[in-house]
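Problem 12. The chain below contains 219 residues. Write out its predicted structure in token notation.
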Amino acid sequence: MEIQDWFPIWNELTEEQRDRIQNSLIRRQIGAGTVIHSGSADCAGLLLVESGQLRAYILSDGGREITLYRLFARDICLFSASCMLRSVQFDVTIQAEKDTELWVIPTKNYQRILAQSAPLSNYTNEIMAARFSEVMWLLEQVMWKSMDRRVADFLLEEAAIEGGNRLSITHEAIANHLGTHREVITRMLRYLQGEGMVRLSRGTVELLDQKRLKELGYT
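Solution.
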């Protein structure tokens, strides 16, 4: 994968700017479960995901997590360069959900080019707007959608990501994604199992009736 795969405005940068980005790239291999970025005090740099899967989430004062969005191959993570984003007033944690290979552009280097290049500035703003749209969508789900519908939507999303109906995931992990307590998720999953939509076993949720899950999620 080439650096221009992440930047559709690559040819609008000057040769010097392109060289500066290329020469500053740092390659990293991250094991599943590793926290790459933790809060506004951290400034890991701009992350360019080559393969694998990252999760961006926030943590409440009470220790509850809620997933904001996921990042996959060819995605860019801006929140990992939070010291560059002075308007961001909340702490975001970035964690590898799967073994991940990525490139890092040091924040100071990217910020210097950003100040010089209108195309890069506009593209960065587009990425930020897209991420905040995902956060606003999540806020809408939390405020207006019942937990059984959110769980149904989450299971369908996971099945699409994993490419199968059998999900290796714990009730605690689902609770962390959805910002609730494990007991709530256990109750919802047992309800779905009683309705014949899923089958539960230790550390596994098997989707038996995706059609009904979709109907529940869209209700």
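Discussion. The longest strand covers residues 65-71. Students who got a different answer should revisit the alignment rule from Section 12.3.
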